[in-house]
UniProtKB/TrEMBL annotation:
SMART domains: RNB, S1. This is exoribonuclease II. Residues 416-496 form the S1 motif domain. Transmembrane segments: none annotated. One of its GO terms (biological process) is mRNA catabolic process. It is an enzyme of class 3 (hydrolase). It comes from Candidatus Amphirhobacter heronislandensis.
Length: 496
């Protein structure tokens, strides 16, 4: 079987396990997409922004360009435009195309293969903001002062023409040299200046920034084992998207619309107590008793750790303490970002909640009076939010399992290999150990020379007879004992 064939088999198996639709959209949905593309009058009722030198900045392998950005500094105020693909103008609520997108809820990005939420005719073509091509967009236009505060904003349906498609490295190279007279370079320089202000303001307001490499980076055999520093161009785009998403939530709330917030709760005391155990075992002193303050201190302390494996383990445990963000019509704030209200607006091609937010914004732009709250609509949104949150989680787990399979299979030719690992977690059955930079396996208690007892938070294990202790974050020498051919799961043995 070819490597590609095996990888496709893995995608099919994991898609089946996690309930991910691997097939094409049904024929009625495809027909609706084609009719919407053919029938539309792109310019009707839209503001013409085709002369604005907007650019898309994405990864090198991106095909669905959701958003384009432009910035111009006027005195002490930044005029930021985030133009987002107007997928809602093609995907009609309640249609077969919409039903299929809702069922999928998210695009799934396996390394080397994408399962799109919308048909390729839309996701990679008509809704994708490709350079030099006219596209419909919904723009968030913001005036942001020198302190990073949005002093004014508005949403407008528009027609755009992206001036350039930049990759993150290309944008980084442009930022490294003095801007010339080129409009794109001038905009990029202002975007960079604004992004630094926005990032500093978020950190002052209580957000924390934690560098985590993309999951698929583990499959890059040529990559350095350390956690890579994110390019500033990536942070720049992130800050622009965060600003637009925050405006979307505020706009819809003030207009009385019912919609899906993106929420992230404060860390709970029980999870914080476990994190304290982990940090103490790794020799980090984070004395905050308040769970929220603790994770902020921990993020700062972890960012200074040079040991790549230990840093990875501690980041993993910090994220477990934080819990998952989710979608709900009830505003609970977003702890991780430090925002009182937040919604997903900037990726309607690949996330269904963003598509619903677009519809709500377009409805609000047309409404003459504040709508009455509807208990039925609230219940529908709660159900939709739970569905989208679940599909997002399943997509992430499927991709992580896929990567684990690929990594594990690389070890089949290295049985007996010895490595210095770091304990990353514990269960009743044994310890999980990160080793070799990106691999993870299990060291089973049953294969060890004692009976090990876990502490309350499952962060430490001690042998009853020997008193030998292990802790999450502790270095441990291991040896690859076996690899499951089907799943890539790795079983380890102590190598001392």
């Amino acid at each position: 079987m070819s490597a590609q064939g095996g990888q496709n088999d893995d995608v099919a198996e994991l898609a089946d396990e996690y309930g991910i639709d691997i097939g094409p959209p049904p024929s009625p949905a495809i027909a609706e997409a084609q009719r919407a593309i053919a029938a539309a009058d792109d310019a009707k009722g839209r503001v013409d922004l085709r002369q604005l030198p907007l650019v898309t900045i994405d990864g090198a392998d991106a095909k669905d360009f959701d958003d384009a950005v432009h910035c111009r500094r006027e005195g002490g105020v930044f005029q930021l435009t985030v133009a987002v693909a107007d997928a809602a103008s093609y995907v009609v609520a309640g249609s077969a195309l919409d039903d299929d997108a809702r069922a999928r809820a998210t695009s799934v990005y396996f390394p080397g293969r994408v399962l799109p939420m919308l048909p390729p005719e839309l996701s990679e073509d008509r809704c994708s903001l490709r350079p030099k091509e006219e596209r419909r967009a919904l723009a968030c236009e913001m005036a942001i002062d020198g302190a990073g505060k949005v002093v004014k904003f508005r949403f407008r349906e528009c027609l755009i023409r992206s001036a350039a498609r930049l990759t993150y490295p290309e944008a980084e190279e442009m930022l490294a040299r003095p801007p010339g007279k080129d409009a794109v370079e001038a905009s990029l320089a202002d975007l960079a200046a604004l992004a630094r202000i926005l990032l500093e303001r978020r950190e002052r307001d209580g957000a924390f920034v934690l560098a985590t490499p993309p999951a698929e980076a583990a499959l890059d055999e040529d990559a350095a084992p350390a956690v890579p520093e994110r390019l500033f161009a990536e942070k720049l785009i992130e800050e622009c998207m965060l600003a637009a998403n925050r405006c979307a939530a505020g706009f819809l709330r003030t207009r009385g619309q019912q919609f899906l917030y993106r929420v992230h709760g404060r860390p709970q005391e029980e999870k914080a107590a476990r994190l304290r155990d982990v940090l103490a075992g790794a020799g980090l002193k984070c004395g905050a008793r308040d769970p929220a303050r603790l994770v902020i201190e921990a993020a700062a302390a972890i960012s200074g750790i040079e040991d790549a494996q230990l840093r990875r383990v501690l980041v993993q445990n910090l994220l477990q303490a934080l819990g998952r963000a989710s979608y709900t019509p009830d505003n609970e704030g977003h702890f991780g970002l430090g925002f009182d209200e937040y919604a997903h607006f900037t990726s309607p091609i690949r996330r269904y909640p963003d598509l619903t937010v677009h519809r709500a914004i377009k409805e609000a732009l047309r409404q003459e009076r504040r709508p009455a709250a509807s208990a039925k609509r609230l219940a529908e949104l709660r159900e939709l939010g739970a569905h989208c949150s679940m599909k997002e989680m399943h997509a992430e787990r499927a991709v992580l399992d896929y990567i684990a399979r690929q990594l594990g299979r690389r070890l089949r030719s290295q049985l007996g290999m010895r490595a210095e690992g770091v304990v990353s977690g514990m269960s009743k059955g044994g310890m999980f150990v990160v080793f070799g930079g990106q691999h993870e396996g299990m060291l089973r208690f049953a294969d060890m020379d004692d009976y090990y007892v876990l502490n309350q938070h499952r962060t430490r294990a001690r042998g009853r007879r020997s008193g030998r202790a292990f802790a999450v974050g502790m270095p441990v020498p291991v040896q690859v004992a076996a690899v499951d051919e089907a799943t890539g799961r790795c079983r380890l043995a102590l190598a001392d």
